[in-house]
Amino acid sequence: MKAIESIRDFQINESNIKLEEMTNQNSHYFTAFNKDSIFNIALTVIAILVVLLVGAILLSLTVYSLPVFKLEGISFLFHDIWNPIANKFGAMPFLIGTLLTSFLALFFSLPFSMAIALFLGEYFSSGKIAIFFQNTTSLLAGIPSVIYGFWGLFVLVPLIRNIEIKLGVLPYGVGVLTASLILTIMIIPYAASVGREVISLVPQDLKEGAYALGATRWEVIKNVIFPYARSGIFAGILLSLGRAIGETMAVTMVIGNNNQFPHGLFSPANTMASVIANEFTEATSNVYLSALIAIALLLFIVTTIINIVGRYIIKKLSIENLD
Q1: 43 is in which domain, residue-wise?
Q2: Predicted structure pTM score
Q3: Which residues pair with 269 in a beta bridge?
Q4: Quick one: 6 and 99 in the same domain?
Q5: pLDDT in tens, 285-310
Q6: CA triplet 245, 248, 253: central angle to 5 degrees?
Q7: Percent of the chain with pLDDT over 70
Q8: How far apart are CA 115 and CA 54, in angstroms?
């Protein structure tokens, strides 16, 4: 009888242990499920907040820019007259100045940024030389824009003025070319850093296979590295272009701040960012203030369009790489 009771007690204890293990396991799964759910909800809320923030910025810019559009209509985007005293506002000179300086800076910076990316990503990817140049490039990206502006004002402007005198051009010193050169120096680190990263990620097997087939180093760079890394390289170029379009302080100090169409590379001009920085505190009327906010809206739209087109090109390049 005692043996039967002992067996029964053992079976009951074993059942209780199994039940406790199942309860603990279910509790663990439930806790993990709760943590995953909370994390997913938090990420969703943050993503929605970011979208709402962008929408709120766009909405506020649109609402506050309505007075100038009621006065000028859609022609505000195409007029070239900017006369706050006569309530005549046109954004075209600033749009042209922004695109001209930004794309010129991008054109000037490409050879240097690609050379640095190749040098650090392929030729000297490690070692003291690589560390020195990487730190120097990072330092260029971290210098405040006002310092670039002061350097351009005291070093680059006199240099450009001397060139203008020799060419028989009005020696302003400041202008589109000066602003583009300052932007060139400022955006080189962005394209170079991203380019270096993607070039260093090219699989070594692909390069070794090309060398085994008798390819030279230039042929490997041309036919293996660039095709494999071109989407990332273009992403770095797009990043540097966005930096150039939105730059304010350095450009304001060396572009000349002339509210007219630039007639050449040496002409003083204005960008959308620089005219806002120069005249926002001087906007005494609602329409004047609305015109500056409308230029900010135009800058927002231009930047968005360039990013959308750039992402589409990156996607197409990535698909071609996969093929």
Answers
A1: 2-64
A2: 0.81
A3: 256
A4: no
A5: 888 899 999 999 999 998 888 888 88
A6: 125
A7: 87
A8: 36
- Asked whether residue 291 falls in the same domain as residue 217, the answer is yes
Q: 16 with 152, same domain?
A: no
**Which pLDDT band holds residue 98 (cuts at 50, 70, 90)?**
very high
Is residue 221 within 8 Å of residue 230, measured between CB atoms? Answer: no
